[in-house]
Amino acid sequence: MSIFFSNPFILYHQFKHSIWLCTIWWVLFNQTIIGEAKIITVDSSIRQSVTSGGQAVFTSIQKAIDTANNGDTIKIKPGIYKESVTFKKNLTLAGSGSERTRLEFDREGLVLSASDVKRANIQGLTIAYTGQGQRSTLWFFRSNIILEDCTVTGGFYSGIYITAGSNVTIRRCQIKDNRRIGINIANSTVRLLKSKISENGHYGLKITKCRDTIVEQCQIHHNKWSGIYISDGKSDENEPRSTVTLRRNTIQANQQDGVTVYMIRQIIVQQNWLQDNIGNGFKIEETASQLIGNLISDNKKNGVIVRNSPSILIYHNTIASQKVGLDLQNINKLDVKNNIIAYHKTGVITNSVITTNFDRNNLWANRKHYSNLPPPSKDIQYNPKFVSVEKKDYRLDDDSPMVRNATDKTDIGGFAHSNPTDIVEKPQVDSTGSEFQMTESFLPQPQPQPQPQPRPSTPKILEQIKTPENNVQLPESLPKPPTMPNVVVHITHIQKQPYLIEVGQRVKISAQTVFPKNDLRMVSCQLVGDRSGKTSGFVYQKQELNWQVSSDQIGLQTIRFQANQLVVDVRFFVWQQKKPPRITKINGNWINRTDSQKPIEYEVPANKETKLVFEAEGGDSLKFSYVFLPVGAKTKENTLTWKPPRSLTTKSGARSSTRKKNKTSSVEKQPAKFPLLVVAENGNEVDVLDLVLIVELD
Question: pTM of this prediction?
C-alpha cells in the first residue's frame, strides 16, 4: 500500500495496460465469435436457393431468417412471397418497397410475427392475410420493433396486434381493409407517426393499458367504428394505466366517433382536425383531458362530450357546426379559455361542475349559447369571420375580431391566423432533441405584434388536402376532406320503414337478400322514386344493386325488386346534412360574390315595374326576408316587386354635381342608389346578400 501511495503513476500505467488488453480481446471476440453483420438476399424469381460470390440467395424469407445471425439484414427483392414468417432474432427485414414487395399467407396462422426481439426493423413490404381464418396479419410480442413504409391489410382480428410490453414505432405505414381493427395495442408503448389507417371493419386504432403512447401526423378515416378507441376499463391500481397523446392528426368520416376515450389516466389532444365523423368528434369518460388547438367541426352529433372526469382543460379550439359544441357533465375541475364555439344548436352544456373557469370564449350563431350555465361574464359574442363556413374553411379572415384577442394575446380559436403552417410543420422538441410530451404548460405563447403581411391565398394546411393532378396520393399529404360521407351502406335485411341515407353514400343490396329462395336470374330491379325517380348512379348487374346517391335524389325514393309476380319495395329517405344557404341567382342569372367586402350592384330601369326573383342553394324550405326595402317595394317569399318613383331627388338617393365649363354651369345627374339586404335562412344558418339597386336617371 505504501508503494501505491508513493507511486501513483504505477497504478495509472497498470490500468492503461489492462484497458488496452481488454480492447484487443473484444475486437478478436467480435471477429471470431460474433462475426460481422451480413446482408442476406431473398429473391422469389429464382427456382431454388443458390450461392453466388460466397453469399447465399434464398427463395424463402423464413429460410433466410433461419440462417441469419443477430444484426444481419435480410434484403428482399421485388416479388410475391407466399409464406408465414416468424423470428426471434435482432434483424432488419428490408423489402424493395411496399408496392413491389408483397408477403402474403392464406392459411391458418400469422403472416408475420416477432417475439422476444430486442431490436428489429421491418421496412418496405406489403404484408397481407388473404385467407378466411380468424388471425391478425402482424403480431409483435414482447419485442422492440420499428415498422416503416409498409402496408398491412387483410387481418381478421387486426392488421397489427402489439402486446406484452412491446415497444414499437410505426412510421409512414398504411393499415387498411382489415376485417376488424386496424391496429390493436395492449400493455405496450407505441409511437405511431405519419401513417394512414383507413377502411377497417371496426376501430381504426384501439389502445388498451398502454403507457406513453403517441399518435402524430396520422390520417385516420373511413373506419366502420370510431377512428380511435382508447380504454383501460376497470382495473386494479397496480395495473398500467394509459397516457395517450394525439398530435396533428386528421380524423375524418369514421362511422362512429372520431375519438372515443374511456377510463384511462390522461389524454392530451393537440392541434388535431376532426371533421365529418358520423358520431361525435370526441367522446371522453372518466379521464383527465387536455384539448388544445384543435379544429372540431361538422360531425353529425356533437363536437366534444366529456363525462364523469376529474379535470378537463380546453384551450384555443375551434368547435363549429354540430348539434352541441361542448357537452361537459360531472367534472370536478373545468377550464375553458380562448375557444370559438359557433353554429350549433347549443353551444355549451354543463352540469355538476365543482370548479369552473370560462374566459374569453367566443360563442356565435348558436341557437342557444349556454344550457345549465349562466352566460360567463368574460365570454364574448362576435362574428369570428371564418374564411368560408360553407366550404368548411374555419381559418380566420384578415379582419376577424379573433386575431390577437385571446387572453394570452394570440388568436382565439384553433387555427393560427398569421402563420397557419405552424399547425403541421413545426414539431416541438426539448433541449435533447427529442419530441416532447405535451403538458398543461404547452399553450400558445404571447407574440410580438407582427409586421403586416399579405395573407396567402391558400394556406399550406389547405394546399395539402388537394389531390394531385395525376390522382396519385402524395405520401405526406392529408386526405381531401369529404364534403359528403363516402360510405358504403350494405342492406342485409329488408324493413318496412324507409332507410335514412345521405347524399354521397353508396347503397348495396343483393337480390338474394330480398328473395333468398327464388331463382335470382329472374329478379329485376328499378328505381321508381316517389319524388324525382332520377336514375343517376343506379347500377343493377350480377343480381346486385349499386346505387351512388346524388343530390338530385333528395327526398323519398323507392327501389323495386320483382321476381315474376312477387314485388318488394325498399324505401329510402335521401337527405343532405347542413348545407348552408347561399343566394346565387337573380332572375335566373348567377351572381358574382367573389368580393365579400363590396355590395352587389344591380341595375333596374326608372319609371318601370321590376320583378326580382332570388334563388338560393341549401334546402327546399328556405325563408326569405328583406331589410332596408325601398319605398313602395313589395315582397312575397323569394320575389321582390318595385317601381322606382317618378321623381328622384337628391334626398331619395340621387346625387348632383356641378362643374363649370366656359363660364357656364351644368348639372350632371348621377345614378340613384338604394341599399337592400336579402336574407335567406333554413332554420340553422343564414345567408345575407348585400345588394344595391342602381336606377339610371333621365
Answer: 0.59
